[in-house]
Amino acid sequence: MNKGTVFIISGPSGSGKDTILKEVLKKRTDIYFSISSITRDMREGEVEGEKYHFISRKEFEEGLANEAFLEYNKYLENYYGTPKAPIEENLALGNDVLIECDVNGAAKKKKKMPEVVSVFIMPPSFEVLKKRLSGRGTESAEQIEGRLNAALNEIARANEYDYIVVNDALETAVSDFLLVMKSQRFKLNNQKQLINEVLKNA
Ligand code: 5GP
Predict the structure, then answer these.
(1) Which of 10, 25, 136, 166 is 20 to 30 Å from 174 at the Cα level?
(2) Residue-wise pLDDT tens digits, 117-134
């Protein structure tokens, strides 16, 4: 059996990353979606074990001491970490793993595991991004400007990624993302075990 692949998905606010992620997980139910362990309080509508495991600071610090995280970050006085064990278990079973994170988290993970495949979700143009960010009508011009600037800063780092998927039409972006995932299976590195097995049983 061949080992699974770790995929990272990132994208700025307005890229449609979360919708793409949801659709991809619906279509690829065999994928393990990495759930971060975090120490901040649960927000309304959040469910334990859906996107995050809500743990105590003490538990997190124990995890740090035991090197239980692939990487972690301290954000607004709270810890956020990517648990290592479920990722390693799933990869060993041949399952692909999907991790959602921002550009800084992606850079840290890529440094630790150079074999990860990173995908950046891009808006098709600046105009479309601007329209999407101002389309909700619930935020002030200043807030929109802030989100637009943050998005541009992330897009400026898109060249650190292996693949760029443009989200113009959602359906196309979802199938493009699935194609990137599928194509990894045919890489020599992911087929070496099979080659060896065929030769061994000859
Ligand atoms: P929030 O509190 O709004 O859910 O997340 C705050 C920030 O933490 C977001 O930028 C989110 O992407 C990031 N984050 C979530 N999980 C992890 C993780 O496991 N590692 C790192 N480095 N950042 C994370």
Answers:
(1) 136
(2) 999 999 999 999 999 988
